[in-house]
Amino acid sequence: MTPAPTPAHGEDKMSHGSHPARFDDAPHGEVEIPEYFENPGHPPHVLRWSDVDPAAARRAERQVAFLFLLSILGTLGFIVAYFWMDQEATGVIPGIGTQKLYHFTLGLTMAVSLLGIGFGVVHWAKTLMDDEEVTEERHVLEADGETRRAFADTVAEGLESSQIMRRPLIKWTLGGALGLFALPLGIQLVGSMGPLPRNDLAVTMWKKGTRLVTDPDGLPVKAADVTLGSVFHIMPEGVMEAEYPLNEKAKASVLVMRLNPSDIKSEKQREWGYEGIVAYSKVCTHVGCPVALYEQQTHHLLCPCHQSTFDVTDDCKVIFGPAKRPLPQLKIAVDDEGYLTALGDFSEPVGPSYWEREL
């Protein structure tokens, strides 16, 4: 049997007899690549109704402007609801059920603001922007003067094809929609990361004569119940009946511990306590996390969020971590029945720093 002939040197073994790829005739360093497919080119450009009818183009322009105007109204509605709407009001939303109207309104107005911009841009691109397909040949990217000029020309051509310079109604409504849309983001960023500049952190429910009660049971605490080395999570008596109980509780929560009086280093700390019993704010002075971990042997309080550590024997001064100030101490005493009571509010604002704290 005669063996099948082997391909000559340089002949493609996978060409199967049609258009064999040969590389032996190609110049040194170059590869001759056969063309098996023709460039199909672009499909015929189909004109839109707005391309041939000026009235249709003006109608599309008004529709795009209406969508941008709708976005502006949604943003303004968000701002109004955020500042002036009752946060506790509820209502029945069809298909959803009972909801807080404040949260529903914020979500609805934000959706209108977003969708107005999105639908407006899509409608603009579909009806008014130039939609003819073009091919751009790849070339070496060089940051020379000619390239920069070409880029500027491309941007100018893009502006021209978008027709934004020839349609001021779209230009101004789009600018208004995008400009106002940044406001809710800024409002949420500033308004949701802590109290506005007022005395929210400087005033709590602690008053002279207010009993210290356990959290969450609400049981008053006698001085005799606080043994050496123990720790109690405390809140003011009656805090859960306040208008905003969780807010008031978060600000006023304290930790109560009994130390050996000989271990206390600060005279002020000893005077503000009672027979070695001291009460300190639970709100970390770094970013407001609850300081709740007490190490009996070292008398250290630890914040679990960022590991700020406070020395209970030295007026809760910071000995480690990012916090910059000691925890505020609550001045306490004992009433006629032996229960621990406050002698007033904290002498300084609790929690993290804010720009008007010193005022």
From TrEMBL:
Domain Rieske stretches: 277-341
PROSITE patterns: RIESKE
Subcellular location: Cell membrane
Spans annotated as Disordered: 1-25
Protein's membrane topology: Multi-pass membrane protein
Gene Ontology CC: one annotated term: plasma membrane
Domain of life per record: Bacteria
Composition bias, Basic and acidic residues: 9-25
InterPro entries: QcrA_N (IPR045603), Rieske_2Fe-2S (IPR017941), Rieske_2Fe-2S_sf (IPR036922), Rieske_Fe-S_prot (IPR014349)
Alphabetized Gene3D superfamilies for the sequence: Rieske [2Fe-2S] iron-sulphur domain (2.102.10.10)
Annotated transmembrane regions: 64-84, 104-125, 169-191
Chief location bin: membrane
Pfam families xrefs: QcrA_N, Rieske
Recorded GO MF terms: 2 iron, 2 sulfur cluster binding; metal ion binding; monooxygenase activity; oxidoreductase activity, acting on paired donors, with incorporation or reduction of molecular oxygen
Keyword Membrane: yes
Family: Belongs to the Rieske iron-sulfur protein family.
Function: Iron-sulfur subunit of the cytochrome bc1 complex, an essential component of the respiratory electron transport chain required for ATP synthesis. The bc1 complex catalyzes the oxidation of menaquinol and the reduction of cytochrome c in the respiratory chain. The bc1 complex operates through a Q-cycle mechanism that couples electron transfer to generation of the proton gradient that drives ATP synthesis.
Protein name: Cytochrome bc1 complex Rieske iron-sulfur subunit
Origin species: Kytococcus aerolatus
